[in-house]
Amino acid sequence: MLIRIGKSDLKVVLKDVGLILEYSAITFLAPIIVGLIYSEPLSTLAVYFFCAAFTFLLGMAIKKAFAGEKHTALKHAFLTASILWILYCAVAALPFYFIQNMSFLDGFFEAMSALTTTGLTVMKTVIDHTPNSLIFWRSLLSWIGGVGIVVLAMAGVLTTYSKASKLIVAEGREERLKPNLKNSVRYIWNIYIGLTFFGVIILYLSGMSVFSAINYSMSAISTTGMDIASQGLVGLHNYAIDISLIAIMLLGAISFSTHYLVLKKRNIAMLWHDAELRVLMLLSLLSSIIILPKMILFYGSNVIGIEQAFFHAISGLTCGGFALVPVTDVAAWEDFIKLALVGAMFIGGSAGSTAGGIKISRFIIFVKSIYWRIKESVLPDKSFFSKRFEGQELSQPQIREVNQFILLYALFILLGCLVLTLAGNDLGNSLFEVVSAQSNAGISTGITQAGMPISVEIMLILNMWIGRLEIIPILSTIGFALSMRGKR
């Protein structure tokens, strides 16, 4: 979908980008509080002050330079989302650059990975020597990114039929979360904050420190999966923590509309009225059972095999991205295990959730479309039958749009695999890493690391960006570039 817009439209887009950047400056104040709690040097705190001031002034300058009377339309939102994601990642990378002395590209990678809730990291070897404020900053970015994509869906930026409408119309019925977008966003934030606090409590009760519980809860509910130490969860074998993280990741992968209905009706049985949730639980169970025998053989223990199979299957499907083993183990897993997890990450969680992937709603419609096509081929030419999903009649253009989206999604994965294999990486590991990046899952085979080739780093950044914005805003940005070129 290539949208042609003119210079007046660009002014609207940049005005909105500037306005949002102004408000985004507030986010830099949170790590300052953490830094004060842990008595970090003033030079570290000054970096966040500088970034806050720079982001605010940059936003204000852009807003004033491109002020206009034209109102924002959907076509502007596409381009705004794409540009804002890049600009905010650029300023969010500055603390990594100044405090951790990372290259700007590495800092940008880390910020993009966090904000897209992917969880891949180039900080594995230095994380143990990183100030707590910067660790929290990374977790905060992932937490903001988790709910941010839901708000974009509500605003209509993610328009391919991914059941973004579930945020407004629940269960196929005209039952709004709230009468307008502003109130809906407020309720989503309330639910999100409540789920985060719930995660902090159960992780703390499972044996984590307060600081660890806060960071892991933010990372899990946003389905990011970033560790706060080089060892992470490796070798922990704390089943209470494992189960707690599984629960939080599943909560993050469930649509916010479903959470809302459960809270509104005070009936947990409402969870099972959601077709996506039923499929999510079914796929979680099937994925775990499929890889279970191979995991038992790999680790030589029934108990450890069960732990690894269920945890990583759910981590992959929800795009939570946590791993209980080092990357060397992931790279050494049999191709069968990797392929099963690739499929799980590719599908992802529910639409209107923090999870990545193509979304379960699209997967269901894709599978149904195959059945419908077979049914059409065997029925008489003028036969008619209903094509419905969760009580809604689907048109042929909607079905075609879903299938086109999945095709484009797969093409970008193939492009990423090409780049990574040309850089000398194994094809199987390359496929796993690219799917993990584009599905915003974050389980790594070790390809993502400090010092990786620039071509690989840029490609993974592109995959993460494309996966989180779900392609359409990216194509709209390309369309704008082509339209402007045509006017020269």
The total count of helices amounts to 20
**What is the string of SSEs from the N terminus onward?**
HHHHHHHHHHHHHHHHEEHHHH
Gross geometry = globular
- The total strand number stands at 2
Weakly predicted, low-confidence segments:
156-179
Proportion of β residues? under 5%
Concise description?
Helices cover 66% and strands 1% of the residues.
Describe the structure using short key phrases.
mainly alpha; two-stranded antiparallel sheet; 488 residues; single chain; 1% strand
Describe the protein in words.
The chain is mainly alpha-helical. Helices cover 66% and strands 1% of the residues. It has 20 helices and two strands. The protein has helices spanning 7-24, 29-37, 42-65, 74-92, 94-99, 104-115, 132-155, 181-205, 210-221, 239-252, 256-265, 275-299, 302-317, 327-332, 335-347, 360-378, 396-422, 427-438, 454-469, 472-486; strands at residues 388-389, 392-393. The chain has a two-stranded antiparallel ribbon with strand order 1-2. Helix 7 runs parallel beside helix 9 (210-221), helix 15 runs parallel beside helix 18 and helix 16 packs across helix 17 (396-422). The protein is globular and about 75 Å long. The two termini are 22 Å apart.
